[in-house]
Design brief:
Elements: H1 23-39, E1 65-72, H2 77-87, E2 101-105, H3 111-118, E3 123-128, H4 143-160, E4 170-171, H5 181-190, E5 194-195, E6 199-200, E7 210-212, E8 232-237, E9 240-241, E10 243-244, E11 251-252, H6 265-280, E12 287-292, H7 294-298, H8 301-314, E13 319-321, H9 324-332, E14 359-364, E15 370-375
Parallel strand pairs: 1-2, 1-12, 1-13, 2-3, 4-5, 5-8, 6-9
Antiparallel strand pairs: 7-8, 10-11, 14-15
Helix pairs in contact: 4-5, 6-8
Length: 392
């Protein structure tokens, strides 16, 4: 059997005739055997565009370097300025605008700005309705609870930002905490096509996006250790390859979790550049900068260093700054960097315009607090929330 997964461990799985050991040991070994059965992805049967084995080798020789600029959380008047400043008039080597992915929460989200960013060609993805704490709540959520949180925010983006529901394809777990199979089952039930919640420490040879037809086959770095064990055919996993802090003392999935923080624009630029080169000079697996926009508010020079980095990579003719969904479309039909300028995955966004009639909606939330929601459509009677995205 051929496989893209390196260094598999051989396990002597027990036969029915060898049940002379304890039931506990039998169950442990059976679990290991099932995991290996899924992880031994057969690349002769798992073929693009619908199936991709986990690999640290690019899908073609000399691939372009993909860069994912993503942001987690609500879109507000403050960070909207930062996002539009970053986007500016910047273009990829094919002269199409750079694009970003926003993993959106409902609480505090401004749906008029959400609408605007989407119709500029950016991607809106799902995070949650509430983004509630403590973080370990998310590692214990049932499938039904995850469905309400993830499916609920997808419905809200559709309704209040007037964005097609089908365009919301991806998910990132709040605090990068999932409940493994319960969360993945919710994603499949909702109809999402990718997850970008799992950190990988394989930064010396980063992992490329892969489908979960043979299960979750990367290193498990979930804070709660809740990684999926089942198979999810057609569901893409986009590993969050760790970044290394400026002093080399720590690894972090979210860039703003790395300490010490940059002390000026130059150190912010060098922090991003050094991590980027780790992918660019090795196997060119997609490089992601995963952030909360507060990184710019807490230290204003970070925005300057960030845009300097964006301009730096755009000088390289084999680098494309694209949304995560565009990256997956590239994976389905990969081409070398020399042909990337003609790749349909990187073509200029063609988004049919829809209306947005901005209005302010005033409510009291479940705790009696005043809430203002900016919407593109008529205000619902009640504040939209978990289990009631329509605000009925």
């Amino acid at each position: 059997m051929s496989s893209d997964v390196n260094d598999q461990v051989a396990v002597d799985c027990p036969s029915h005739q060898r049940y002379n050991r304890t039931m506990l040991r039998q169950l442990i070994l059976l679990s290991v055997c099932l995991h290996l059965a899924w992880s031994l992805c057969d690349s002769t049967n798992c073929k693009l565009p619908n199936c991709k084995c986990m690999s640290q080798t690019g899908p073609v020789s000399s691939p372009p370097q993909l860069v994912f600029l993503t942001f987690d959380g609500a879109i507000t008047s403050t960070n909207y300025y930062n996002f539009t400043y970053i986007l500016g008039s910047r273009v990829n080597p094919n002269k199409c605008p750079i694009t970003m992915t926003f993993f959106t929460t409902h609480k505090s989200n401004d749906y008029t700005y959400t609408h605007d960013l989407y119709y500029r060609g950016n991607e809106m993805a799902a995070k949650s309705v509430t983004d509630k704490t403590p973080s370990n709540l998310w590692s214990n959520m049932t499938t039904a609870e995850s469905f309400d949180e993830i499916g609920g925010v997808r419905d809200m983006i559709n309704i209040y930002a007037n964005i097609p529901k089908s365009s919301v394809k991806g998910y990132r777990a709040p605090y990068i905490e999932t409940n493994g199979d319960s969360t993945m089952a919710a994603l499949k039930s909702i109809g999402l096509t990718y997850d970008a919640s799992y950190v990988s420490k394989m930064d010396n040879s980063p992992i490329w996006p892969y489908t979960m037809d043979y299960g979750f086959t990367q290193d498990c770095q979930s804070p709660s250790n809740n990684c999926p064990t089942a198979s999810y055919p057609g569901l893409w996993n986009v590993p969050m390859v760790v970044m290394t802090s400026m002093d080399g003392s720590m690894k972090c999935g979210m860039a703003d979790a790395c300490t010490p923080e940059p002390k000026d624009a130059s150190s912010a630029f060098n922090f991003l550049k050094s991590n980027f080169l780790n992918s660019y000079n090795t196997n060119r697996a997609p490089f992601g900068i995963y952030l909360h926009s507060a990184w710019f508010q807490s230290s204003p020079w970070n925005l300057e260093g960030y845009t300097q980095f964006v301009d730096y990579v755009l000088q390289l003719q084999d680098v494309y700054i694209v949304s995560v969904s565009q990256g997956i479309e590239y994976m389905k039909n990969p081409v070398p960097a020399s042909q990337a300028v003609n790749s349909t995955a990187f073509s200029c966004p063609k988004v049919s315009p829809s209306s947005c009639s901005p209005r302010k909606c005033y409510y009291n939330d479940d705790d009696g607090n005043d809430v203002v929601m900016s919407s593109c459509v008529v205000c619902p009677n009640n504040y939209p929330w978990v289990g009631n995205p329509q605000g009925n």
